[in-house]
Design brief:
CATH class: Alpha Beta
Distance between the termini: 30 Å
CATH topology: Spore Coat Polysaccharide Biosynthesis Protein SpsA, Chain A
Structural class: alpha/beta
Shape: globular
């Protein structure tokens, strides 16, 4: 687990958990971004499967077994949890949803995919695949970067329906229009240059 410079007591909680449970906690002294936190964690991964999950309580860890099962069975090396495939999720039409729909469309057109939720914060990978990717991301551009890289390698991305607990900006959602613009630029860069 990586604490990315939080100031809300999470650091102390993680230190306490790491003393009692078989987890390792790493700490950034200042916020560096989601991509930097993921790259820090990847350097310490020892298992065969990696699950990327934001710690904002929008996703349910009880769904881990369902998400890792296709990788364990050898069906794929990449699983994305899709908020849009589960019929019971509240997904109001907000600028966040519009942004996700635009990113899905652009991703699918650029890379020949059929994703419903490229921007999901529930991504699962075979560890050796994820570690082999030349990730450079610092912030939220992790999602388009990793999607572009696995698509370019010809990896099949399997999507499974997940439960989702929508949060508003007032409840702490941090992603904004600049992140959406950066995601689009990242997709274009990996399609046409990198």
């Amino acid at each position: 687990m990586v604490d990315d410079g939080s100031t809300d007591g999470t650091r102390d909680l993680l230190k306490s958990l790491a003393e009692r449970l078989p987890i390792r906690a790493m700490f950034h002294p200042a916020n560096r971004g989601k991509g930097a936190a993921i790259r820090t964690a990847l350097a310490e991964v020892r298992g065969d499967i990696v699950i990327i999950q934001d710690a904002d309580l929008e996703y349910d860890p009880r769904e881990y077994p369902m998400l890792i099962a296709p990788i364990q069975r050898g069906e794929t090396n990449v699983v994305y949890g899709s908020r849009y495939l589960a019929p019971g999720n509240a997904l109001p039409l907000t600028h966040y949803k519009v942004g996700v729909l635009v990113l899905n469309l652009v991703t699918n057109l650029l890379f020949g995919l059929r994703l419903t939720d490229e921007a999901t914060c529930y991504k699962v990978f075979r560890a050796n695949l994820l570690k082999a990717l030349p990730l450079r991301c610092e912030r939220f551009e992790f999602c388009p970067e990793v999607t572009a890289l696995v698509a370019r390698r010809g990896e099949r991305i399997l999507e499974l329906p997940i439960s989702y607990h929508y949060r508003t900006r007032a409840q702490g959602k941090k992603i904004g229009w600049r992140d959406g613009f950066e995601a689009l630029l990242t997709l274009l860069r990996y399609r046409f240059t990198d």
